[in-house]
Amino acid sequence: MGTRDEHIGNVIRTLRQRRGLTAASLARSARVSLTLVAELEKRGPDVEHVTPVEWGVLDRLAVTLGLRNGASLYKLVPDPSDDKAPLLRLGGIASVEGGAGARGTHEKL
User: Fold this and answer.
1) Domains by residue range for the chain, with CATH
2) Is the pLDDT confidence value at 109 over 60?
3) What residues have CB less than 8 Å from 6, skipping those under 6 apart?
4) Structure-derived torsion over alpha carbons of residues 84, 85, 87, 91, reported in degrees to the nearest 10
5) For 95, phi and psi rounded to 5 degrees?
6) How far apart are CA 16 and CA 3, in angstroms?
7) Burial of 70 (0-12, 13-18, 19+ CB in 10 A)
8) Rounded Cα gap, residues 23 and 83, in angstroms
9) Is the pLDDT of residue 67 over 90?
10) Cα–Cα distances in Å, from 40 out to 7, 73, 82, 91?
11) Angle formed at CA 30 by CA 80 and CA 12, multiple of 5 degrees
12) How many CB atoms are located within 10 Å of the residue 47 CB?
């Protein structure tokens, strides 16, 4: 894992909170364990170290959070060299509140 302060866990937690979900409700909706959600929110793997099993979990979480796939989560992790990037470029997403999948989700990634 890298040493950056911003990581995939911050993305997952922020999107979850903006949707008004608890970690337990996200886990339930994505059909993953609460322990796994908590572990991912603490840090999560750098994109270079994601295993195929982790991609499956990240894909399920991303869809539950209204994104296309797990790779979309990584696109929201700010580049540490970009001093203009606020925590998670979430302002670039028109709406993640509309629901998972194609139902009302608008992405600009």
Assistant:
1) 8-92 (1.10.260.40)
2) no
3) 77, 78, 80, 87, 88
4) 110
5) -160, 125
6) 23
7) buried
8) 30
9) yes
10) 10, 12, 24, 22
11) 15
12) 16
pLDDT digits (tens, 9 = 90+) for 2-28: 444 678 999 999 999 999 999 999 999
CA distances from 16 to 21, 49, 66 (A): 5, 23, 10
What span, in angstroms and rounded, lies between the C-alpha atoms of 39 and 34?
A: 9
Angle ∠(30,76,86) on CA atoms, nearest 5: 130
Check the CA dihedral 12-75-8-91 and report its sign.
Answer: negative
> Quick one: DSSP state of residue 40?
H
Class of residue 106 by CB neighbours under 10 A (exposed 0-12, middle 13-18, buried 19+):
exposed
Structural tokens at position 71: 């790779």
